[in-house]
Amino acid sequence: MAQTPPARQILNFALDAALAALALPAALWLAGPGNWPAPSWWWGGVALAVATLLPIGWALGLHKQYWRFAGLRDLLAVLAAALLGALAFFWLLRAADAWHGDNPAFPVLHAMVLAALLGAPRLASRAQALRRAMEMAGAPAVLVAGSADQVDVFASALARARKPPYRIMGILTRRSRQAGRRIQGHPILGAIEEAEAVLEQLRAEGRLPQILVLASPDLAGPSLAALLDAADRHGVAVRAAPQPTALAHAARDGLEGPRLDLRPVSIEELLDRPQVPLDREGMARLVQGRRVLITGAGGTIGGELARQVAALGPAMLTLLDHGEYALYEIDLELRERHPEAPRRAVLADIRDEARIRRIMEEARPELVFHAAALKHVPMVEADPLEGVLTNAFGTRVVAEAARAAGCALMVFISTDKAVNPTSVMGATKRLAEMYCQALDKQARAPDSPKGEGSMRCITVRFGNVLGSTGSVVPLFRRQLERGGPLTVTHPDMRRYFMTVREAVGLVLQAAVVGAADREDAPPELREGGIFVLDMGEPVKIVDLARRMIRLAGLRPDVDVEIRFTGLRPGEKLYEELFHGQEPPRPTRFPGLLVATPRTADLALVGRALEEIAASARAGQVRLALAQLSRLVPEFAHEGNPERSGSAAG
Question: In this predicted model, what pLDDT tens digit does every residue of 134-145 receive, in sequence order?
Fold first, then answer.
């Protein structure tokens, strides 16, 4: 069965028919002014003029022409169609004895008028296209990569701009079979995976683009990294197109300006990984209609927890933080983004036992996310007692107050630095893990009393979050803004990275799994198991620095220096997610692993926490660190005895 002609071909067909109808009265007037046929003749005459041109035009391909790309061959086809159509019309009229005129030059005049009317709009469209091309001659040439639909939206927005800022010279799509075809007249040169070969060919032809534009916002992770590597080898800058909604608005309204501005690619996009499926319904059941409290709500993890929890419809969301401005910012953001979510912002220090107990009694949370902590390794090394009081003792304060207030579940946010810790920060978080493990193990024991006082305590451990306060990515951005250098502690330094959105989504997933005695829950949880997020492969920090320099359009070690400064106190070259004696086990939930580190009796850990907190409050640094080393035997600390001794005073 024959396929229906495309809409553009049908439009060309209709326009040619209208032009043929207009050509007849014009030709008759030129052949004999005032010598008009009878009114009854016109219906049949116009219909015959159209009917003779259209089959000839169809055979010569007039309906397939792109008017703005009309060339000599197209115009020759128009002339041939006009001449043959005029002769056929005249011959049929004579054969039917319906010709009334007396000018023998009518067929020639008819052919001339028909050729002029058919050719004029094609020439005008071509002239406009040439003028536009001349205007764009100075615009940077871009190679656009993305799905066909999103490339089409970008090209439409660009085509409608009054003064296009870029000139599309080729396209890379997701499917190699699309190569050789066109999108809005722009050739598809290959698939995204073939970027290296396409750029190599363009370089050989002397047509290398200035910019590689990413039209699809979902281009991320390894596929984006491969594109960046190919562009970097050929010295082509990489930029991302605006969001599709902004582009669609620009294409519809013919606007120009910020909507067409290309933005730099962020390092978060580069290191982002495919989204794992999450139990969104389970998260909604966990949060909806319940009272939720988040500590450290002004921080990176706490703030993202607040955003995602607020969207799930809690009965009341209590935001707790000791930083006034950070708390104000997240409260203001939630007021604007989720005004329907009841919330309360509370200024408090998690080390203030009486204050935290009063807050818990007032809020009576059913679900607590404990994200408050001191996390910057060098800062805690400089003030180790603050780390002990906040990270270890503060966790116990929050957990005991929540349990006493009838909380059903507490989720404790831990860190990979708690594994074989070499820093006070890591050791204090490991001590907090031990306490939470013991608390949860007691609550899950078969003889444990259910109901009030039997709070579950889930621990979730993961590595670095991109863009978090004090992390390396914001530091590199600030150093780039100043022109460098970028400071890296060691050439072999490696870290795990994850986006905050993904990390918090998996934290909520872990909360769903560990909230009750589900059949699909990992059996290790009964033995104090810890959830560990699957962080993928670790990233070399120096590679991260080089990538960020390239994303800024600069050259590492040429435009921006990378300077190695040496390891800081408490730092390790490689972070670990698992202790050697706690091998990871997969769960039925993508992105979640489980480990079972050693546990201790809840009463023993509780007493030890009281003792170390007393030493910290008394300013006894040496004693507190010695107690920490006994509680966390794998803690290999390289503290400064002179500093510790003077601090102990």
Answer: 455 567 888 999
Angle at 314 between CA 308 and CA 319, to 5 degrees: 70
| DSSP string for 321-376 | ES-HHHHHHHHHHHHHH-TTS-EEEEE--TT-HHHHHHHHHHH--SEEEE------
Q: Which residue has the tokens 């004693």?
A: 623
Q: What is the mean pLDDT of residues 123-144?
A: 69
Residue 11 C-beta-side C-alpha neighbours within 13 Å: 6
Residue 524 makes CB contacts below 8 A (sequence gap 6+) with: 585, 594, 595, 596
Determine the Cα–Cα distance for residues 362 and 346; give it in Å rounded to an integer: 11
| Structure tokens given for 627 | 């107690």
Identify whether the C-beta of residue 353 lies closer than 8 Å to the C-beta of residue 397.
yes
**Unique residue bearing structure tokens 């997610």:** 577
Structure tokens at 411: 């989720």
CB contact burial 271-289 (16+ within 10 A = b; e otherwise): bbbeeeebeeebbeebbee
Helix, strand, coil tally for the chain in percent (to 5): 50, 15, 35
Domains and CATH numbers, the chain: 7-133 (no CATH), 137-265 (3.40.50.720), 280-463+499-534+582-642 (3.40.50.720)
pLDDT in tens, 594-604: 887 777 788 99
What pLDDT is attached to residue 174? 82
| Angle, vertex CA 394, rays to CA 391 and CA 399, nearest 5 | 115
CA distance linking residue 532 with residue 593, whole number of Å: 5
Residue 90 main-chain phi, psi, to 5 deg: -65, -40
For tokens 């059996």, name the residue: 523
> Which band of pLDDT confidence, cut at 50, 70 and 90, is reported for residue 272?
low
- The amino acid sitting at 91 is W
Query: What does the alpha-carbon distance between residue 640 and residue 627 come to, in Å, rounded to a whole number?
Result: 17
